[in-house]
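Bumping with the actual sequence this time:
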Amino acid sequence: MTSGRTRPRNRRLPVSPLAIGLAVLLHGVLFGIMFIKIDSHVKQVAAVKSMQIKADKPLDIIEATAVDNKVLEEKKEKKQAIEREKQRKVAAEKKRLAEKERKHKAEIKRKKEEQVKKKKAEEKRKKALAIKKAEEKKKADKEKTRKKAEAKKKKEAERKKKLAEEKKRKAAADKKRKAAAERKKKEKAMKDQMAKRAREARASQALSKYVPRIQRKVEDNWRLPPKGAAGCNPTVRVNLAPDGKVLNAKIVKSSGDPYCDSSVTKAFLKASPIPIPLDPDLYSEFKTIDFPFRP
């Protein structure tokens, strides 16, 4: 419903300058407040972002460090597990080798014991066999000894019989031989006696014949001692060869003068050969002469 008066649509109301001033002031205050809030908010956001950035970096480092430590820990645990497995295998190998060594030693011991047992059994068997053989040998030896004794006894009886017969025969032969030997011995002794007497007679004759010749030849080779010939009468034993060569001369009875005795022995050696009979039967009488030197 409209009133009786129509108002125009674009009609402006009059604005007071004071209202305009208040409005401007009010807007300025509002704008200042809004600017301060916006700036403060921006700074807070920047500060928060800065803090977040700064905080994010240590977190990343901590997280990376934690990851590295975990990897290292896993590697360490893996290494320790490998080492434990290695030690377990080494221990197991040692145990296996020890068990093998024990079994080896046990086997060696068993074999040794078995060898000892076999050796003892073999020794026992050999001993029993040796005893059996010894008994058999003893029995055989006893029988052999008995037969040998019988044979020996028989042989001895035969030997004694033959010996008695041989002794009897030999006694008769010996008696006959002794009688003949005694007869020959007596005949020989008689002949030897006669020959000795004849030889002594011949030697005595030859000696009486050759003594002056020996004395003369020795004196020809004798060099008088300082005291002269007086009292120089030693007896000299002279050993001669069959041709009269003087083999040795030594004093058997001294004259009492060493010079005299020495000169006579030298004279005999120098006079070699001295005259003796060349008859071989008389050489035995002239082989060794105890010559009394009498100048």
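The tokens above came from a reply further down the thread. The first helix runs from residue 17 to 220.
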